[in-house]
Write a sequence for this structure.
């Protein structure tokens, strides 16, 4: 997939979370490191986990904690603060590769 040069790197949330709830447009997670609560747009984040069959899991198949990655612009803080180490300047290709691995082609 072609990514324009000005979009090849960006700030992302990348961290270990636990699932809290899901809505039509967003999912709430608790950041394992500090308990902060975040809301992430459903159409942009990737849960970096597969179920026992090697498929992208439903919310009922999620482990207690797992990594997610999302553009920081798709993350809203509900309570607490995002730890500095969870905000990373990453290649857009890393995000796209994780999307392809866990969800499929965009």
């Amino acid at each position: 997939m072609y990514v324009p040069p000005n979009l090849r790197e960006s700030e992302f949330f990348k961290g270990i979370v636990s699932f809290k709830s899901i809505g039509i447009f967003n999912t709430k997670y608790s950041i394992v490191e500090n308990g902060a609560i975040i809301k992430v747009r459903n159409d942009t984040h990737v849960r970096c986990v597969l179920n026992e069959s090697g498929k992208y899991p439903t919310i009922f198949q999620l482990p207690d904690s797992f990594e997610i990655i999302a553009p920081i612009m798709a993350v809203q803080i509900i309570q607490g603060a995002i730890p500095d180490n969870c905000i990373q300047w990453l290649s857009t290709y890393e995000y796209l590769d994780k999307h392809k691995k866990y969800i499929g082609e965009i």
About this structure: The first strand starts at residue 9 and ends at 22. The mean pLDDT is 91.
